[in-house]
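Summary for the steering committee. The consortium agreed at its last meeting that each partner would contribute one worked example illustrating the joint modelling workflow. Our contribution is presented below. We chose a case with several input lines so that the handling of multiple components could be demonstrated. No manual editing was applied between input and output; the record is shown as generated.
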Amino acid sequence: MTTRITIRKPDDWHCHMRDGEMLKAVLPYTAAHFGRAILMPNLIPPVRTTADGIAYRARVMTALPQGSTFQPLITCYLTDDTDPDDVERGFKEGVFTGAKLYPANATTNSAAGVTDFRKIVRVLERMEKIGMRFLMHGEVTDADVDIFDREVVFCERVLKPWTRQFPGLKFILEHLSSKTGAEFVRAHAPQVGGTITPYHLELTRTDWLGSGLKPYMYVMPVIKTEADRQALRKAATSGEACYFLGTDSAPHPFKSKVSVNGIPGIFNAPVALAVYAKVFEEEGALDKLEAFASLNGAMHYGMLPNEGTITLEKQEWTAPEEIVVPGPDERALVHHGGERMAWGVVA
Ligand code: DOR
Ligand code: ZN
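What follows is the complete predicted structure of the assembly.
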């Protein structure tokens, strides 16, 4: 039985690092385990322009623990009015790694997102031309579509036509949550890649709603059925190049999560690698963890893998209950907080 595994240093291809005091509180957890992370631009206000991207990257670098070699990868938040010239400038100057679609009002801090997909056609044409990656919160928000079907309908109605309209554009369907979404990615690889979160591999809607409401399991896209979970586990652990690690670690103040109008997102950076290792072990696929965590994403983004390594060991430890955030945010719950974790990062 494998109880220790050393892999190339992983990257997190989807992470919410936030800003201000929350950024300072959560950044060390990602920087401790990952070489790079794609930082989501859904701040308040969002990272919309190259100037915003330069300023956000500087704030992240300032918040980094001393001596850290962690590299933040900044993304551009698309709006109805995004200027293709500015996007190109940000990409060519190495500020933006990609641009991110939030359909307006699909999730946390997406109110300034895209209200009509036709409004970003010129930006997508430019991104295709310059080789810039297109990251998507792949859900429609049409009133006639049930919340559990938002991803599937996005694939059919929006992404499928886009793959034909922009054959040279590389897409990332983020936080895959459904069997159909995972199959769509496989069928459209290598043009389309997909990230998979720890919690979509672990949880079903029955865990979330079946024996007491667990507000911290409320995320977007919502957690789905056991059949979806099983399909995602098979996809992640297949080693196929189109699937890669993206934690979607998304901290929120406790009072925003546990509220009559709770907010989606779960802070999992402290436990993400432990969860992935457990899932891969359960699936008998620890030999595929390196591809998923450290190689496939870099390849899809046209980057080299990290140079260093990380070692995980089957050694129990207790996840912190919560993190303390100075100021009005106070504290944020940690996914699996207070629980014994089977795998840990030891080096
Ligand atoms: O659960 C989520 N939380 N999904 C998202 O798409 C956004 C994220 C956040 O920013 O909190
Ligand atoms: Zn996210």
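Residues 4-345 form a domain with the TIM Barrel fold (CATH 3.20.20.140). DSSP finds twelve helices and 13 strands in the chain.
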